[in-house]
Write a structure and sequence with these properties.
about 800 residues; alpha/beta; 22 helices; 29 strands; globular
Length: about 800
């Protein structure tokens, strides 16, 4: 966090210096964050579930935790610990590392699925019990979630965790005791993670494991708690809210799919709308979204234009897209703010780019993706001739972020408006300009088409031209875009919606993104532009600084910050509470609950939406109103986190006979081989990371002479022990090889990395930043040449944080 998110790291340091907060750092490397931490716990890359599992086991076995009334009340009533699971469910403890319902893929390479699945689960046995008793608040029934948890995590002992992670037993126990001591009525613990947890074949399960621990400790829905995703861009949160993702549309609604029962609007709504919980309002969100897409053309007689909306036909994420590209089935690519020429298994991705008919690159500089056809390593080596590459490349120079108005959405879900400081030079144009002009030209192109498939473009509403011309011709009005996102009463764009509670499913409201509804409640009230801190001495939620979705609340599920009767758990952690005199929830934050539902209000067993939930069920987005320790649906790789080894590992799984996730995604290709377990040719663990002085693939930093002077050269960090073993000295040239490629870098011999003893075997680990390429003020080899196209089954995130390599003196 100190290295990659230094601005955000001010706040943990403020808490430490001014209030005595404890900072714990768990990482394969000793970094700037480790230097500021009270406890540094080293772990082997890819073993985080084992580490977290050890903490969970410690908590479950702790006598103080088991006897504490706070933990007991939170656990029984605010989580699904007391819920009974079907008797035919089998845990990974019963089946040597897999769950019941596994359907492994048995095909051959020729018909290997493009979606990459090596196996899939049938989730039916993971469901809650529906007959007879369904809850046991004593937590003694062997089928209740709590007992399943205890059995599942029993093997994650401190001794076993040390064997799997390499973290010394006493370090794990110190972390466990510190976290437990800082959780309860008066104290909370927060966890912050970044791509060190996401970029694994079980990345979502790592994050879910942490959420499970936080629920056990009562650290969700309370101030100073939760699990925070440290985003790698200023608005990565925004790009998932209003998604650049293929599988969801605005506000985390699933994209209509040709592979699911989504053939008509009512079929989509039936499949996507639960009966209970706040998602029961999905018809209001979705119909208002369709009205934003198609305006007056969308009406009840044509299902609000549902048939015009694109349907996905499979996994269209980054890795399978480039596999399909390499197979010659993709004609064109528009690449904005991304650098696939230096991305995952970069050689294979460039193979795909060479088979495109056309490629549009929009970026700040002529980066590697724009020049792959003349300067890529395979071209320089003479293996590929530029004249044999048929791809036509178009480059659009981009405006910088300070050269346009707009908003960022940060990890706190907070929108903050940024203001234009200067016009861009020459022909540089903003992303808004590019998207706006592309949409207008496509509408013009399709205007006279008679093909049914083109009606979506013809009916698409696109009214973002400014009322008064600006300094850049063709630039859209960003506040008109924000108005469309916020929403308005259909037919009157000046009557902005005050919040998503106003949305209707009859077409009378127009709203692109229900979660952002309320950010722009009136034509003169852009709440994202507010910059008013709380007065000195006021302990509040900074509600007048920016605007956080949903409804400007800063802590989600904050009904959990009060006990069953609506009283704060403690004065020190007072956040939201029930005001009996006024009959509503009040507090320092916007309550995340039905405002006038009393704590003792019963749920209607036959009701829908929030009516079905009682006043004591704070997790209103879940159909049962509680936090899920056990996940009966929504994850494709199991209802509980389980330690598997990365797709490439130097050791066999010490915990289970099952080596890797049985449902990971792997794209078989001659240029994408994987090393077998313990391959002596590739004995070392490698992880990749970022530096403060550079930014991602380097397109925003390698052209800056001040930054490149600070970090001018690609390097590999390795321990003194490994350096001695290999005869490598500091600043020697080193070659690094994986089954996919070989690159060169300078050696940085440092005690920031250390050897681990894993299952009785010494395992060395190396680390490399990945900011370099062949363009810019400084250049270097592409580290992502080394990585593989292998990923997790839920979101197809790649495994770039743990694979294997060899290191030799060059």
């Amino acid at each position: 966090m100190a290295e990659c998110h230094p601005v955000a790291f001010r706040w943990p340091m403020k808490a430490k210096v001014e209030h005595g907060a404890k900072i714990i750092h768990v990482d394969p490397r000793f970094t700037r964050t480790s230097a500021m931490a009270d406890i540094y716990a080293p772990v082997r890359a890819g073993s985080d579930i084992a580490f977290l599992g050890g903490l969970i086991n410690y908590v479950l076995q702790d006598a103080g935790w088991n006897g504490d009334a706070f933990f007991r009340q939170y656990l029984v009533h605010y989580t699904n610990a007391a819920t009974l699971v079907r008797k035919d469910f089998k845990d990974s403890e019963d089946l040597d590392g897999v769950f019941s319902g596994l359907l492994e893929y048995r095909g051959n390479t020729a018909d290997w699925p493009l979606d990459g699945f090596v196996g899939q689960y049938d989730e039916s046995t993971w469901q809650y019990a529906r007959r007879g008793a369904t809850r046991d608040e004593t937590l003694n029934d062997p089928q209740c979630v709590f007992q399943i948890l205890k059995r599942h995590f029993a093997r994650y002992t401190p001794e076993m965790v040390e064997q799997v992670t390499g973290c010394p037993r006493e370090k794990l126990l110190a972390v466990a005791r510190t976290v437990l001591d800082n959780s309860g009525r008066d104290r909370t613990t927060a966890w912050a993670y970044a791509v060190g947890w996401t970029q694994h074949t079980y990345g979502p399960q790592m994050i879910g494991c942490c959420a499970l621990l936080q629920l056990l400790l009562g650290n969700v829905g309370r101030p100073g708690g939760g699990v925070l995703a440290l985003r790698g861009h200023a608005s990565i949160q925004g790009s998932t809210d209003l998604p650049t993702l293929y599988h969801s549309i605005h506000g985390y609604m699933n994209a209509p799919s040709a592979l699911r029962p989504h053939h008509a609007l009512q079929a989509y709504l039936a499949a996507e709308t639960p009966r209970t919980g706040y998602w029961a309002n999905t018809p209001k969100f979705f119909v208002s979204y369709l009205k934003s897409m198609y305006g007056d053309a969308a009406n009840p007689s044509n299902d609000f234009g549902y048939d015009w909306h694109p349907k996905i036909t499979g996994d269209h994420s980054h890795m399978p897209m480039f596999v399909a590209m390499a197979a010659g089935t993709v004609k064109g690519l528009i690449c904005v703010g991304q650098n696939p020429a230096t991305s995952l298994n970069a050689g294979l991705e460039r193979t795909g780019m060479r088979k495109l008919e056309w490629l549009v690159v929009k970026d700040n500089w002529l980066l590697e993706t724009a020049t792959f056809w003349e300067k890529a390593p395979e071209v320089v080596r003479g293996e590929i001739k530029p004249e044999d590459i048929k791809t036509e490349v178009f480059f659009f120079p981009s405006a910088q972020v300070a050269e346009t108005d707009g908003s960022f959405t940060n990890t706190q879900r907070m929108l903050q408006w940024h203001f234009k400081a200067a016009d861009p030079p020459g022909q540089c144009r903003s992303d808004l300009w590019f998207t706006h002009q592309l949409a207008k030209r496509l509408k013009e192109l399709y205007a006279t088409s008679t093909l049914p498939r083109d009606q979506g473009f013809q009916k698409l509403t696109w009214e973002f031209d400014p009322d008064q011309p600006g300094s850049i011709a063709g630039e859209p009005d960003p506040e008109k875009i924000l108005r469309e996102i916020n929403g308005y009463h259909t037919g009157d764009t000046d009557r902005h919606l005050a919040g998503f509670g106003d949305l209707k499913d009859d077409g009378s409201t127009t709203c692109a993104s229900w979660i952002y509804c309320g950010v722009y409640p009136a034509p003169d009230r852009n709440l994202a532009a507010k910059k008013e801190p709380d007065p000195p001495g006021v302990l509040g939620a900074e509600l007048n600084w920016g605007w956080a979705w949903p409804a400007n609340r800063r802590v989600l599920y904050n009904r959990a910050s009060a006990d069953l009767d609506g009283r704060p758990w403690s004065e020190r952690k007072k956040w939201v509470w029930w005001d009996a005199a006024h009959g509503q929830w009040v507090g320092r934050d916007v309550p995340d609950f039905a405002l006038t539902k009393a704590p003792d209000a019963p749920g209607d067993p036959n009701g829908t939406g929030l009516d079905a939930l009682s006043g004591r069920q704070p997790f209103i987005m879940k159909p049962d109103g509680v936090g899920w320790l056990f996940t009966p649906s929504g994850l494709l790789d199991g209802p509980l986190p389980t330690h598997y080894e990365p797709a490439e590992s130097p050791v066999h799984n010490p915990l289970y006979p099952r080596q890797t996730s049985p449902v990971l995604k792997y794209w078989k290709h001659r240029d994408n081989p994987l090393a077998p377990v313990g391959d002596p040719r590739f004995p070392y663990v490698i992880t990749t990371y970022r530096l403060t002085e550079h930014y991602l693939a380097g397109a925003m930093s390698r052209w800056n002479p001040w930054l490149t002077e600070l970090q001018p050269e690609l390097f590999i960090e390795l321990s003194p022990e490994l350096a001695t073993e290999k005869g490598i000295h500091n600043l020697d040239w080193v070659k690094i090889a994986t089954p996919r490629a070989e690159i060169r870098a300078k050696a940085l011999v440092t005690r920031r990395l250390r050897p681990f003893r894993i299952a009785g075997k010494v395992v060395h680990q190396v680390g490399m930043p990945w900011h370099w390429g062949w363009e810019g003020v400084v250049t270097g080899d592409v580290v992502n040449h080394l990585t593989a196209l292998v990923g997790d089954p839920n979101v197809s995130i790649h495994e770039g944080k743990a694979f294997v390599c060899n290191v030799e003196k060059a």
